[in-house]
Design brief:
The structure holds 2 protein chains of 2 kinds. Chain A is mostly beta strands. Helices cover 0% and strands 50% of the residues of chain A. Chain B is globular.
């Protein structure tokens, strides 16, 4: 199975900060990567698919980049509603796998 | 609008078999461009994909859970069913069903709609 490693596991940031989360795949997955946001007690919400495509309705401050094994999710200007946990997912092949998560906390 | 909703027992005993149902609306399970997966999340931990079913009834399973998990669907009832045998306390988790689809000429396996989840506790 393809292993997905996210870093950092947590980050403290302030409103207005630029936040970058990385995800590394154990083997090449082309651009088949998705990013989700999850708030406590809620289901994950799709933010980005195919590495850089913004899901409909998601604010443009979220962006994704990368291909092969290294990927990045960037929040350009952190808003109060963005404090949450973020997961990456490789969608290249079965078994589908997720990263361990990155918790974005208030500084 | 598209919705998915999980139902089933919230408490099972060790060694028992878990059966969960995902009832969907707003799309058809016979739609050739849609599929449904089950994903679980132990409390405070990461997401884990379990199984996927395509509209043509083709299935795919997690490598690590393949021997214990079965996915099926009843298109007429708009339901996808997950069974997991020999439940253990480590299987305590919120279980989600989620939809995937078709994009730019490919079947894709990111999940654009999720159910609310059902917390299943395994305890005697």
């Amino acid at each position: 199975d393809i292993q997905m490693t996210q870093s950092p596991s947590s980050v403290s940031a302030s409103v207005g900060d630029r936040v970058t989360i990385t995800c590394r795949a154990s083997q090449g997955i082309s651009s088949w990567l998705a990013w989700y946001q999850q708030k406590p007690g809620k289901a994950p919400k799709l933010l980005i698919y195919a590495a850089s495509n913004l899901q409909s309705g998601v604010p443009s401050r979220f962006s994704g980049s990368g291909s092969g094994t290294d990927f990045t999710l960037t929040i350009s200007s952190l808003q109060p509603e963005d404090f949450a946990t973020y997961f990456c997912q490789q969608t290249n092949s079965f078994s589908l796998t997720f990263g361990g998560g990155t918790k974005v906390e208030i500084k | 609008q598209v919705t998915l909703k999980e139902s089933g027992p919230v408490l099972v005993k060790p060694t028992e078999t878990l059966t969960l149902t995902c009832t969907v609306s707003g799309f058809s399970l016979s739609n050739g461009r849609m599929g449904v997966s089950w994903v679980r999340q132990p409390p405070g931990k990461a997401l884990e994909w379990l199984a996927h079913i395509f509209s043509n009834d083709e299935k795919s399973y997690s490598t690590s859970l393949k021997s214990r998990v079965t996915i099926s669907k009843d298109t007429s009832k708009s339901q996808v069913v997950l069974t997991m045998t020999n439940m253990d306390p480590v299987d305590t988790a919120t279980y989600y069903c989620a939809r995937s689809g078709f994009w730019s000429g490919y079947f894709v396996f990111h999940f654009d709609y999720w159910g609310q989840g059902i917390l299943v506790t395994v305890s005697s």
